[in-house]
Amino acid sequence: MSIDISNYNREADLMQDEIHLLKKSLVELKNNIDNHQSIPNDDSASALNKLVVENTKLKHRLAVLNRAVAELSAKKTPVDNTRMQSINDILTDIFSTAISRAFPDLTDPPIVIALSGSNPKFGDYQCNSAMPLSNIYKQSGKKVAPRDLGQKIIDNVESHEIIEKLELAGPGFINVYLNKQFGLKNLSTIFVHGVNPPQLPRKLNVLVDFSSPNIAKEMHVGHLRSTIIGDSICRLLEFLGHDVLRINHVGDWGTQFGMLIAHLHDKYPDFHEKSPPIGDLQAFYKESKQRFDEDEDFKKRAYASVVKLQSFYPIYKKAWELICDVSRKEFQRIYDRLDIKLIERGESFYQTRMEAIVKDLQAGGYLEEDEGRKVMWGSQGGQNIPLTVVKSDGGFTYDTSDLAALKQRVDEEKCDWIIYVTDAGQATHFNTLFGCARKAGLLTEKIRVDHVGFGVVLGEDKKKFKTRSGDTVRLLDLLDEGLKRALDKLKEKEREKVLTPEELKQAQEAIAYGCIKYADLSHNRNHEYVFSFDKMLEDKGNTAVYLLYAYTRIRSIARNANFTPEKIKELAKTCQISLDHEKEWKLGKVLSRFPDVLLKITKDLCLHHICEYMYEISTTFTEFYDSCYCIERDSSGDVVKVNHGRILLAEATAMILEKCFSIIGMKPVSRM
Ligand code: ARG
User: Fold this and answer.
1) 252 CB less than 6 Å from ligand 1?
2) Between the ranges 75-84, 175-184, 461-470, 563-572, where is the mean pLDDT highest?
3) What's the average model confidence in pLDDT over 445-462?
4) Where's the Arginyl tRNA synthetase N-terminal domain (predicted)?
5) Whose CA is nearest to atom 4 of ligand 1?
6) Confidence class of residue 271 from pLDDT cuts 50, 70 and 90?
7) Which are the contacts of 455, defined by CB distance < 8 A and separation ≥ 6?
């Protein structure tokens, strides 16, 4: 029987909305209470009293609603057998039901589920809610030992196929042991249906604004980081089934175009008939900048050109397009090599929208005069700096285009989630932007916005990343060096003697681009990051090369036993993954965490979690392979026995690893 869950979904959505509103009024009430000034003095006592009563009522309603939502969501998700399930979600459901049953008096009880760590003595997962619960009771004057609360939780857990046993430990931890039969069922889905994403409540419209270099300027390593991180976020969200718009918000509309156009005019007067041979846009930029700084008359013409361009004067627009084209081709070479897809929608796209939003903000009274500029504050006071919405010469800025872009993304693209990937130095800009947008009502609480910042790239000398001669590193040169170093590495191992030229080239590219991407993604993005080919190309530790080799080794197991992918699919119909041996079960449990790793990244957008996970898969696989024979051979090397259940486990490992590779934008090879 199939259950129509759309009604539940709708009901749950409505409730979520209502809860949201209630939570907001609670916050407002609390603010009012905290902020006595807003209550007229004479009535203050009775007003306060009224608020407290109101508050208690609301809290009670919130508790009722929360419980109803919990029940609904438990009902609304009939298990989908075509995908692996999130263990974290299941355990969270189980324990939140148990906890609200055990403590019906609490409004929003903490549900704390964690992995148990490496010591098998503590089970596989833990529910650590008893300690914070005890604190909550303590605050309201009731003293209860966390251990007693832990026991009460256990008593209220209903039996579930995922749980083998529960154990109360230490001051009140609840150790959870997973059930093997469940693990087996969960993992086996991938042989029938492939590696699918976990089930999500709904599909979102997501816009990821990444890469975003500036026209006529060098695309630098900061943009490379944004490109790699942004692409991986897109790949993850696409895999999860969301609608993802990959936007390249290129800087194509600044005042620098005035001088570029004026210079183009002088240097190639026939540019509108014959495409000008600008090979080196950087040099062209430098020339025009020099004239701009030295020649007053040129400067005036440059300013005049910007104004004409921004009102779309055809010949100026043509000149601008020519310049953009040169840059665009350069950028594209990098995107092609790294296999990155982007839709270009630069600052210029928002010109008319900027004009409109300035009018709106002006009319709404949001703009303040400041020495001829018009600024907008995100929030008042502190060390905040405002957005500059209109410059004193009437021109628009980076801030104006971001305001207009945000509005376009919300109103026209109907985004549920907008993600900006830039260096951490722009965090203040984005926080102020979000603050202003909320203030002006462009952004509501239902829309999620994230600034995904990252640290600066340093050279091996821990100083700003530069070439030996002190110039900025050209990205194309960097990729070339990666290719060269990767080939050296392969030759060092004499792989050119075993691989076909085609295989060698594939391995070279997999290593070169893979190591650059992996080194970036495997570090916590918030930290600064040292760019070192030597480190990236190491074949030990958590590196791309190690993982690429691990993957080929795992893939070769089935191949050596003459199992084609089709044959494995057949095999999976009659034979089960083997999970009996301690090391098999350990690997099985790591693989079962795949959905949870992905879901975790959707929360903090930190991709090093998936890299750490891939490394953990590889090392756990090695442990398994060292103690469990998949294929047994006799002394002459002939295969005498194949352990089919283990072949399946190895294959499941390869399949999940492969999916991880694709999420981080790496292309593993089957031989290298
Ligand atoms: N072009 C900018 C830079 O190079 C990055 C743009 C990021 N996106 C945005 N919507 N502000 O720093």
Assistant:
1) no
2) 175-184
3) 96
4) 89-178
5) 213
6) confident
7) 423, 424, 525, 526, 527, 528, 529
Task: Determine the distance separating the centroid of ligand 1 and the alpha carbon of 524, expressed in angstroms.
Answer: 21
From the alpha carbon of 398, which atom of ligand 1 is closest? 11
pLDDT digits (tens, 9 = 90+) for 330-351: 999 999 999 999 999 999 999 9
Tell me the fold of 475-663: Isoleucyl-tRNA Synthetase; Domain 1 (1.10.730)
Task: Fold for 81-178, please state it.
Answer: Gyrase A; domain 2 (3.30.1360)
Output the CA 578–ligand 1 centroid distance in Å.
50
For ligand 1, say whether the CB of 218 is within 6 Å of any of its atoms: no
User: Which whole number is the average pLDDT over 410-424?
Assistant: 98
pTM reported for the whole predicted model: 0.89
Nearest atom of ligand 1 to the alpha carbon of 250: 1
Q: pLDDT for 623-634, tens place per residue? A: 999 999 999 989
Cβ of 126 less than 6 Å from ligand 1:
no
Q: What's the rounded mean pLDDT across residues 160-182?
A: 97
Calculate ∠ Cα 317-323-327, nearest 5°: 135
Torsion angle (degrees, nearest 10) of CA 549, 550, 552, 556: 140
Where would I find the H helices in 311-371? 314-338, 351-363
Mean pLDDT computed over every residue of the chain: 91
User: What residues does each domain of the chain span?
Assistant: 1-78, 81-178, 205-251+347-452, 255-341, 475-663
Question: Are the beta carbons of 22 and 62 closer than 8 angstroms?
Answer: yes
- Quickly name the fold that domain 205-251+347-452 has: Rossmann fold (3.40.50)
Q: Does residue 209 line the site of ligand 1, with CB under 6 A?
A: yes
CA 430 to ligand 1: nearest atom: 11
